[in-house]
């Protein structure tokens, strides 16, 4: 059941907030929860589609902050 209700690594912030909002968490609580679970290291494969080909558009996720997006691109360069 948890796998169906938890957002995927590709989920946008809107989807994440909506998903946890249905469980009674507000925006601040959701961001705190995700921040606590995101401290550490992740692999580019979990989010590179959001940097380079969001939803098959060939463009980045429009919800990503552009400064943060550029920083992530330096750490996770595009490989065709």
Automatic annotation (TrEMBL):
<feature type="domain" description="Plant heme peroxidase family profile">
    <location>
        <begin position="1"/>
        <end position="80"/>
    </location>
</feature>
<protein>
    <recommendedName>
        <fullName>peroxidase</fullName>
        <ecNumber>1.11.1.7</ecNumber>
    </recommendedName>
</protein>
<feature type="binding site">
    <location>
        <position position="7"/>
    </location>
    <ligand>
        <name>substrate</name>
    </ligand>
</feature>
<keyword id="KW-0575">Peroxidase</keyword>
<dbReference type="InterPro" id="IPR000823">
    <property type="entry name" value="Peroxidase_pln"/>
</dbReference>
<feature type="disulfide bond">
    <location>
        <begin position="44"/>
        <end position="76"/>
    </location>
</feature>
<keyword id="KW-0349">Heme</keyword>
<dbReference type="InterPro" id="IPR010255">
    <property type="entry name" value="Haem_peroxidase_sf"/>
</dbReference>
<keyword id="KW-0560">Oxidoreductase</keyword>
<dbReference type="Pfam" id="PF00141">
    <property type="entry name" value="peroxidase"/>
</dbReference>
<keyword id="KW-0479">Metal-binding</keyword>
<dbReference type="InterPro" id="IPR002016">
    <property type="entry name" value="Haem_peroxidase"/>
</dbReference>
<feature type="binding site" description="axial binding residue">
    <location>
        <position position="37"/>
    </location>
    <ligand>
        <name>heme b</name>
    </ligand>
</feature>
<keyword id="KW-1015">Disulfide bond</keyword>
<comment type="similarity">
    <text>Belongs to the peroxidase family.</text>
</comment>
<dbReference type="GO" id="GO:0046872">
    <property type="term" value="F:metal ion binding"/>
</dbReference>
<keyword id="KW-0408">Iron</keyword>
<dbReference type="GO" id="GO:0140825">
    <property type="term" value="F:lactoperoxidase activity"/>
</dbReference>
């Amino acid at each position: 059941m948890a796998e169906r209700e938890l957002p995927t690594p590709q989920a946008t912030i809107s989807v994440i907030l909506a998903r946890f909002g249905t469980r009674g968490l507000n925006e601040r609580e959701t961001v705190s929860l995700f921040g606590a679970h995101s401290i550490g290291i992740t692999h580019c494969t979990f989010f590179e589609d959001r940097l380079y080909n969001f939803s098959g558009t060939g463009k980045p996720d429009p919800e990503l902050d552009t400064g943060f997006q550029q920083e992530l691109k330096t750490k996770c360069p595009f490989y065709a």
